[in-house]
Amino acid sequence: MLVSFTDLKAKLRQILSKHQFNDNDADLCSTIFAQSTLDGYHSHGVNRFAEFLKTITDGFVQLNAVPKKLLTLGNIERWDVGLGPGPISAHFAMERAIKLSKEYGMGCVALQNSSHWMRGGTYGWQAAEAGCIGICFTNTEPNMPSWGAMEANTGNNPLIIAVPNDKGHIVLDMSMSQFSYGKLWKYDMEGKDLPFPGGFNATGNLTSVPKEIVETRRVLPTGYWKGSGLSIMLDLLVTLLSSGRSTSKIGEMEVEYGLSQVFICFDANQLNDEQTHESLIHNIVEFVQAAKPMKEGDTIHYPGSQTLLRRAKQLKEGIEINDNIWDALDKL
Question: Which parts of the chain fold into alpha helices (H)?
């Protein structure tokens, strides 16, 4: 079915209000989930909304948690967000990093005791909208084998990098697995195979069948050993900067919560004047897009360009949402 962005946000906000969210938090969370869905990331938007609520009703995530500052080192801050809802905590942290960058040129905020932030790209777009170059990353429960391992011993720890751009922000949002679990669930729900092999099945062979990969929890690291190594380094960084839980410690919890996250901002306006900033960006983007595509008529994309196209299309035509997901929202 097709649903407008306004109607989707209103429905989600109504549900959150009934689940004891205050007005500000209900408005923020409904916006984040609706925007992720609008941009085409259903797996970390509306498709994950019921699961998000369950972590709260089950008591793993604390709805009224108040962030507590633990450490200040100039333009670096460490906060304990008390197991608060991930999207609320992450938005708060990026706002702090933005504010620090406006004061110091660069700001870094590390969180301990956070929760799943849903779509990580949300906070990259948040930084870019504020005129900042943004970088953020999180660890996860053990859900991916390191290169050569038979079992999950690291996380598919997402990394986001965003650059503000007058013709549409450039935002990379990637997990350290070839396909995120949310994407695997989406393909499985739609009865589709992956376009490329995404992990190993029970016999140890590469497969494009999402259900087989979810069952083994042997997703394929992005770039094979390179993605595996980067995942381990991201876990080290978030753990050391936040003094929080590592992936191995998160794996000892009943469900995935109590995560460690880092948010970094650079104030683009202090690094270059506006004309220089845009000139440097356009030179790179134009060079990338000038390449001859493998298939005639195709467009060479850069990070975030397809998101902008999906956003514009669905704002005009409506957001396509699985009927079962919409029915589940009604039950909430």
Answer: 5-18, 23-38, 49-57, 86-104, 121-129, 181-189, 210-216, 225-242, 247-250, 268-271, 274-289, 305-317, 323-331
What is the side-by-side order of every strand in the sheet holding 132-138?
68-73, 76-80, 106-114, 259-267, 132-138, 159-163, 170-174
Q: Are 39 and 307 within 8 A, CB to CB?
A: yes
pLDDT bracket for residue 183 (50, 70, 90): confident
Could you tell me if residue 297 is inside a domain? no
Q: Is 91 a catalytic residue?
A: no
* CATH number of the domain within which 313 lies: 1.10.1530.10
Q: Spot the catalytic one: 42, 44, 91, 116.
A: 44
How far apart are alpha carbons 184 and 208 in whole angstroms?
10
pTM comes to 0.95
**Contact (Cβ atoms closer than 8 angstroms) between residue 7 and residue 321:** no
- Say yes or no: 100 and 209 in one domain: no
Domain count along the chain = 3
CB 260 within 8 A of CB 155: no
User: Cβ(154)–Cβ(101) under 8 Å?
Assistant: no
Look at strands 132-138 and 206-207 and give their pairing: unpaired
- Please state at what angle helix 323-331 crosses helix 49-57, rounded to 10 degrees: 30
Render 239-280 in DSSP notation, one character per residue.
HHHHT---HHHHTTSSSS-SEEEEEEEEEHHHHS-HHHHHHH
134-166 pLDDT per residue, tens: 999 999 999 999 999 999 999 999 999 999 999
Give the residue numbers spanning the domain of 190: 178-220
Q: Quote the CA–CA distance of 73 and 76 in Å, as a whole number.
A: 5
- Say whether both 241 and 136 belong to one domain: yes
